[in-house]
Predict the 3D structure of the following.
Amino acid sequence: MLTIGIKAPDFELPDQNGNVHKLSDYKGKKIILYFYPKDNTSGCTKQAIAYSENKKKFENKGVVILGISKDSVDSHKRFEEKQNLTITLLADPERKVIEAYDVWKEKKNYGKVSMGVVRTTYLIDEKGSIIKANDKVKAAEDSENMLKEIA
């Protein structure tokens, strides 16, 4: 996990519609940058739906929500349509941004060890610095917890 106070690494990734987003495009706004393991899985779905439901509340506070996983643009599009999501999902199949943000880690699941994305949420300020970092995210509660952080 990256350290609070450092400049967030810039990136360039396509969203579920193929539009390219750069972190630097959002200078002057706060950004919730959340990393999640996989489209259409239980926890990831709860997290994305909660962010979609709270999107207006975040926008009213000048906050942009960006979700990133290693899934493809097509996978993100199916996820968005199936779950009626309203947030921006960025595709990082080559894991460049996932690794730059230090969320590609060894994970243990039922005794099996593998590499994967550790669910992590960063709050980035208007100048591009990380002001909050959490790698102990509870998927269903993340959106509400981040709203409290911004209030």
The helical segments are 42-53, 55-60, 73-83, 96-100, 142-150. The radius of gyration is 14 Å. Residues 47 and 96 are 23 Å apart (CA to CA).
